[in-house]
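During the second year of the project, the team shifted from modelling isolated chains to modelling whole assemblies. The rationale, set out in the original proposal, was that interfaces cannot be judged from single-chain predictions alone. As a representative example for this report, we include one of the complexes processed in the last quarter. Its constituent sequences, exactly as entered into the pipeline, are reproduced here:
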Amino acid sequence: MDGPIATTAPALELRAMSVRSRQHPGCAGIRNINWKVAPGDFWVVGGMIGADRSDLLMLAGGLLAPECGEQFFFGGPMPLFEEANLAQRLRLGFVFQGGQLLNQLTLAENIALPLRYHKDVSAAEAEADVRWLLELTGLSRWADRSPGEVSVDSCQRAGLARALILKPDVLFMDNPLAGLDAPQRHWWRQFLAGLADGPEWRQGRPMTLLATGEDLRLWRGCARQFAILKESSFVPLGTWAEAQFAAVEFLSEPVFGLGGQEGSC
Amino acid sequence: MPSSERIHSDAVDGRGNADLLSKVCLSGFLGWKIIRFILTLRGLGAFALITLGVLFSRFAVARRLIHPLMVREISRAGLRLLPMFLFLSVALGFLVIGQSVAVLARVGAINYLGTIMVVVVVRELGPLLAALLVLARVGTANVVELGTARALGEVEALEALAIDPIHYFVVPRVVGLAAGVFALTVYLILGALVSGYFWAFLQDVPLLPGDYFRQLAAALSGLDFLLLTCKACFFGFIIAIVTCYHGLAQPLRLEEVSHATVRAVAQSVVACVLLDVLFILIYLLV
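Output from the structure prediction step:
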């Protein structure tokens, strides 16, 4: 979506928000989240397994109802599921861990799905966009395969292509590097760095990216802002340099190792 | 107290306690069952209303994606089951005629063959049998497909893409099953009526084709066509709603899909039979 971006307003702002854990309904979840994401920022939030990273991402993307707090999207209210908010809603893209593709459809059909649904176009009319995204994500060979017939990383890439087909302004990614080998991780970091720098197809406008991960080292030199989830709290750490300084306090966190070599884009 | 009396007394007390306990357990069990039944009914009702709302309010939304899905579902719940239904229609005609000819011939009431075919096949067995077979072939597949989709997070993915899961998953199935059950019911009845005459002919029943079809026409009324249409479409609608509800409307893990399928089949059968009873009452009252 090429919607107007008010450069003065944050792309996303969460004020004093709390969310209950979906996996463990009896547990606290994440409390008192204050998070301001500027347009074009690239954030990565680290956290251990069970730290409700996915819940944070779904909350930030308006997919999960908060217990309390306020949320703003480019200065306005967070677009929820009402028909009137659809145009704003489509400025948000989601990439789930493992892709979460529809198993009855091929990769190409999965990628075309949002375009076909929201623009009401036929498969033939969506083909040019789908082919472009298949080439962009290196999936052209697997276009006619179903998700069960291809590897997890191909599903993950197809999930990325599906999220990008409507050209969102803000992209949420749930643990996109999980389970990938080094070459695949390298491809993802390069690709996301390209999105954050402003790709040609967005006329050089940077895309706002928010990702979660288990190991922040994998994002060094690629993401611009870091945060961690610790003891039901969201802790913004800042840039990598600031995060390294702040990490003295979080050295016990396995998500935040110092001196890791992998990560430069 | 002599030991024998104590034993007797203990036994009486024990039996009393057991009786009391069984009454408490029974009432608790029944109460729990009734509450669960009411909750399920409420859930199904809400799901049906939401689906109808989406069906009508979003009929023109994403037509080029959703309408082909409807056609696919009609094919799946109708066209592809046609060979099995043709076989069953022949068997049904044979069952009804085979049994009734012997009895009717004994009492000299062979002229009621057409009437019996209308009462048994058109009003009762045809729609119910068609619904149960479609439930077995398509309804179960619905629960498994949707339950798996739910367990694998496909529903969340659709919501994240701002695609209404009811519109994408349920509406095509509701339309497909309603149309499919209706079409298959018509084919089943037609096949059974024709094969019924064929089996009567093979049993040397002195009945000309014209007389047989005159008997059928005389036994049929406009109300039969109206109620048959309503009944078949409602059966399809109910099967779609119950199976989609159990597959989609509540969070499932993969290992729960089989239980959800069993529940959906049982509830669909009960719902179809109850609806059939309602239509019998309408027949009796009108």
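The interface with chain B takes residues 61, 63, 81, 86, 89-90, 94, 96, 100-104, 113-114, 116-118, 120-122, 159, 162 of chain A (CB under 8 Å). Confidence is low (pLDDT under 50) at residues 1-6 of chain A.
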